[in-house]
Design brief:
Length: 517
């Protein structure tokens, strides 16, 4: 018994949907026979042939149809999948044998299916709580999950780190959501602050998971008696000062520097893309990196000038005036001198750049590059922080790139800052709702002056803080202080990285060990 079989080119197989293709079987023998048709190979379980058998006279041929319905499962990755038709003859005397096969390739369409879970669902805290979002790619193609956290009541500051996670098929990744109440209260029962974690990936409906910050009073119950005394004193003081009423929300307590270990409890909890979930964001000042002693912040040698170059075809004279003023203010606060080595052409490769340059005198550290760039370069800087952290990037909040005005990225070698990059996003807006451009100067609210002082703070080694009284606060828009001036905490931090902390030695120029701060 002989036969010939062929398969017409199949269409694209969308998992979960039916796909069909026509087949043709010809009886090449001299006698009539019955032929059974079946699909073999990896899709065998998920395909059938209609009709399943054909009675064919000598030399006769007939058509049938293969129907495939692949499961929505990572078992069938997007891409080509072999489809094999086996034709068996059903002649009783010879027994059943495969008399013809035909091959085709079906293209499996990608589908996205990311499952998100959050742990814990409810966390009790007065200031900050962290939630681990676990993402599992149950789709059939690698995907990028964008994670955002939204609070419809606007009672929380929410950040997600990282805000996108690349997931291979079947891979599991995590992101950390940090929730901080926008205001605190002293006493009383805890207040639930529900919010939603939204995970989106291309080609799928957004997945929403709810979580709650059970906000506790700022003062633990055991401290009640002490608080009554303190509040009493404060009330008395405010009455003496002219009868102004007590503010409803108490300010965050100021830190006191420990002169023997300035860095203790003051390592930034999230510095340039590296999140340290075990750390609470320090209140008034913090350092991006500490030496192995846990006390000494990493910094430039404050006793030699920091050389810098500038670039920015899109920057105007007002931008350059803001920079000059900001550098002057930082010099005044730290004793660190800045020397302009000149203007360089726009570098489309930023934020990537060599840390070492070689000249006639040999290798030396590249000057700090202060670059006015578009939001595309800011996006690349954010992408420096891969899922799970490790390599630092720029700010990694959930805001779009136009909401990120800049990034300060010091480069460290042997525990000393040796060069760095300061990116200023000329596309930045000061208000995401109105799209208003960032104002120049150092006035009230968001401004280029405030951005510059903040990013220069990062460059010198300072991290983010909770207190809005300081320019190193983690959110530009939250500032309410009258103008862009350094706060008490900023100055404590700047003292610790400036001349007051003494001179240090800059190591000889060498390619740093892949560390960018
Ligand atoms: Zn910052």
């Amino acid at each position: 018994m002989g036969a010939r079989a062929s398969i017409a080119p199949p269409g694209v197989a969308v998992p979960g949907n039916l796909t069909g293709c026509d087949v043709r079987v010809e009886n090449t023998s001299a006698v009539a026979g019955t032929f059974t048709l079946a699909v073999a190979g990896p899709a065998a379980q998920w395909a059938w042939v209609a009709p399943p058998s054909l009675d064919l006279g000598p030399g006769a041929s007939a058509g049938a149809r293969i129907v495939v319905r692949l499961p929505r499962s990572p078992a069938f990755p997007a891409g080509p999948l072999p489809l094999i038709l086996e034709v068996r003859s059903a002649t009783p005397r010879a027994g059943e044998a495969v008399v013809a096969t035909a091959h085709a390739v079906v293209e499996v369409a990608p589908f996205a299916d990311v499952v998100a879970t959050v742990e814990p669902r409810i966390a009790g805290a007065s200031r900050v709580a962290r939630y681990t979002v676990t993402l599992e790619n149950r789709g059939n193609a690698p995907t990028r999950a964008i994670v955002d956290a939204v609070d419809p009541d606007d009672a929380l500051y929410l950040t997600v780190e990282p805000d996108s996670v690349d997931l291979a098929i079947r891979a599991v990744g995590t992101a950390v959501v940090t929730a901080r109440p926008q205001s605190s209260f002293l006493l009383g029962p805890s207040r639930p602050r529900p919010f939603t974690i939204v995970t989106e990936c291309a080609g799928a409906q957004p997945v929403e998971v709810g979580a709650t910050l059970d906000q506790r009073p700022a003062v633990p119950r055991s401290a009640f008696a002490a608080v009554v005394a303190v509040v009493g004193l404060a009330l008395a003081a405010s009455l003496l000062a002219g009868g102004r009423s007590l503010p409803a929300e108490p300010a965050l307590p100021e830190d006191r520097p420990d002169p023997t270990c300035i860095g203790r409890d003051h390592l930034a909890s999230e510095s340039n893309g590296v999140v340290r979930p075990e750390l609470t964001m320090p209140v008034s000042w913090s350092f991006l990196r500490l030496a192995a002693d846990g006390c000494t912040p990493m910094r430039f040698n404050p006793c030699q000038p920091i050389h810098y170059v500038t670039s920015g075809a899109r920057a105007g004279s007002a931008d350059r005036a803001d920079l000059a003023e900001a550098l002057a203010r930082v010099s005044e606060a730290t004793g660190v001198e800045f020397v302009h080595d000149g203007e360089v052409p726009d570098d489309p490769g930023l934020p990537a750049r060599p840390a070492v340059v070689t000249g006639p005198d040999g290798a030396r550290w590249a000057p700090v590059h202060i670059a006015w760039v578009g939001q595309d370069a800011i996006g690349r800087a954010r992408a420096l922080a891969p899922p799970g952290g490790g390599q630092p990037g720029a700010s990694t909040t959930t805001v779009p790139d136009i909401g990120i005005p800049g990034a300060g990225l010091p480069v460290e070698s042997g525990g000393v800052h040796v060069t760095g990059l300061l990116l200023l996003n000329v596309d930045a807006v000061s208000d995401l709702r109105t799209g208003a451009a960032m104002p120049h100067g150092f006035g009230r609210g968001p401004s280029w002056g405030r951005v510059l002082l903040h990013e220069l703070g990062h460059l010198l080694g300072l991290g983010h803080v909770q207190s809005t009284a300081n320019l190193m606060h983690h959110q530009l828009g939250a500032h309410t202080s009258p103008s862009a001036t350094f706060g008490t905490g900023d100055r404590i931090g700047l003292d610790a990285v400036g001349r007051k902390a003494g001179c240090i030695e800059t190591p000889a120029a060498a390619v740093p060990g892949g560390v960018r701060g």
